[in-house]
Amino acid sequence: MLCEKSFISISAIIVLSVAVCAVDAAKPKFPEVADGEYIVLLKQGIPDDLDSLVSDAGGHLERVVAEVDMAVATSAAEDFTEELNKNPAVLRVIPDVGLEWIPDLNEVDVEGITPEDERFYRFQWNMRVIEAPAVWDAGYTGKGARVADLDTGITTYHPDLQPNIDVAASRSFVPDEPTIEDFHSHGTWTAGIIAAVDDEFGVIGVAPEATLIAVKVVSGDGSGKLSWLAEGIVYAAGEAEADVINMSLSAYFPKSGLHNEWRPAKESAYYLSLLNKAVNFAAQQGVTVVCSAGNGETNLNHDRDWVLLPAEAGNAIAVSGTGPLSQVDFDTPAFYTNYGTSVITVAAPGGNIDRKPHLPPGWWLDMIISTTPWSWSWRCGTSASAPHVSGIAALIIGQHGGEMHPAQVKAIIRKAADDLGKPGMDDFYGHGRVNARKSVDVSTVLLTEPDCFPPCHEDYPEWIDVDKPDCWCHPAQCHGDADGVMAGSAKAGHYRVGPADLNVLLACWLLKEPPHGPGIASVPDGICADFAHDQGGSAKTGYYRVGPSDLNILINSWLVKEEPHGPGIGADCLDCP
């Protein structure tokens, strides 16, 4: 596998564009309510007569997403939501909302670079930082892994991407843009970081033989409906048969609903519950979900009024950004990146800019070069960070023949990351900056040492076993003795947990196996969530009351270091007294 890229000689000068790193506004924008468009959440499955139920309430049923008990309807009737909410099969009718997933980019042209003069691979410092060339040389390229890029689409005719795109499996969920072609450029750029081909031309992606699936959920103006995203996640994990979902998207959502401009707290919880449910569905289908952490320069540990989507949905891997300054100190936290141990899983190259009054010559070289619909472009942002991790996930999954449980993929990426900043978890780096070579090395343990799955240590029920540093616990060996198979959703009751990351417990549930060992006792239904105090992201030994809610929603409540506001963690528990 080639590590250096040469170029086919062409006579025309290639004009590369540089996009100045975009930073989210200091004050997050509220979602925009879509007039006459509604999301219908159902309690237990889709009723056979849903079409007539919607019609009787004065609406029209547009589409159904049975996997997450959701339908989309339109109506001009003023009392549509009130009438449909009366039906016992309906959990809640909420307006669909639009969010600005991708901030505007200010592009500057850089002329005079020709294929005869330069090799674009020389500019890909990001691939060398994560040690991707060593992985390619070892023969691992992501072949056999399928990565769905949920974005603005992908330019199917780009020579660096075309061989890897599964056009038949790709799909648009943007009604006004039925084609998967990219009318923005963002999706084409992120796709190139994931899987640009090794064709001796242009750039190379982290997993140059992985299959790309374009799932368009964002329009050409960078915005999209929440329903489009939920549908796209379900489609990618189901019909498209993706192994990895990349979402280089970020938008803020009012967490509590205690804003004059927004809606009541209960409605905010329903929106969050829907996206959690979609991400959970993907995990249950064996899909690793990777999200960018956002470009707001925000400490997410202290951001109590807002939730960052989709990074804080379900059990996704949230990725912060790093980059050099004048091609020095390549692991410097990017000036724009969000941070905070409550959200960040790992860090990855996103590009950087030295924000001095006078930028040094060649300042754009500190950013990430990748494909655009027209040619190639330097840009930066956590939108670039997530594709690096998605590419590494594809390398691991391809190494295992195209199938691997997402809990294992996440554990390998975390274990193999280079620990930067303070030892252990760090606000900017999470578990560390990802390393492709080490990830493949760690993943090899699964292939060569099948007995390397000892029971979790009693005093350290985490992935890494203290007695065997090179091994980690299989998800099915986590602590807890469940009363029956839970199949991914919590039953009401008291659950005793040890001082472990709740994600470990989640993995056991998602495997649809009862955890082994002491720990969980069932009690009667009807108990709503009621935490005594802020847990700070990790469970402390004790009893915690939970309602019949999805565990991912419960986990998010812990990770954001916020006590729930009374009843309302899970959709099924929202109407508890």
Description:
With 577 residues, this protein is of the alpha/beta class. It is built from twelve helices and 24 strands. Strands 7, 8, 9, 11, 13, 15, 16 and 17 form an eight-stranded mixed beta sheet that branches. Strands 3-4-2-5-10 form a five-stranded antiparallel beta sheet. It has a four-stranded mixed beta sheet with strand order 6-1-19-18. Residues 1-14, 111-118 and 450-577 have low confidence and may be disordered.
Q: First CA to last CA: what distance?
A: 62 Å
Largest beta-sheet details:
8 strands, mixed
> What spatial form do the alpha-carbon principal axes imply?
globular
- State the share of residues found in helices, binned by percent: 10-25%
What does the radius of gyration come to? Answer: 23 Å
Strand percentage, roughly?
15-25%
Number of strands: 24
Specify the number of helices: 12
Give the class from helix and strand content and strand pairing.
alpha/beta
Detail the poorly predicted runs.
1-14, 111-118, 450-577
- Mean pLDDT value: 75
Task: Give the helices and strands, then pairings.
Elements (H helix, E strand, L loop, with lengths): L13 E7 L11 E11 L7 H7 L2 E7 L4 E6 L4 H6 L4 E11 L5 E8 L11 H5 L2 H6 L8 E6 L19 E2 L13 H10 L15 E6 L6 E3 H12 L6 E4 L3 E4 L10 H20 L3 E5 L13 E4 L7 E9 L2 E6 L12 E4 L18 E4 L4 E4 L2 H18 L6 H11 L19 H13 L15 E2 L2 E5 L20 E5 L4 H9 L9 E3 L19 E5 L4 H9 L18
Parallel strand pairs: 1-19, 7-9, 7-11, 8-9, 11-13, 13-15, 15-17
Antiparallel strand pairs: 1-6, 2-4, 2-5, 3-4, 5-10, 12-14, 15-16, 18-19, 20-21, 22-23, 22-24
Helix pairs in contact: 5-8, 6-7, 8-10, 9-10, 11-12
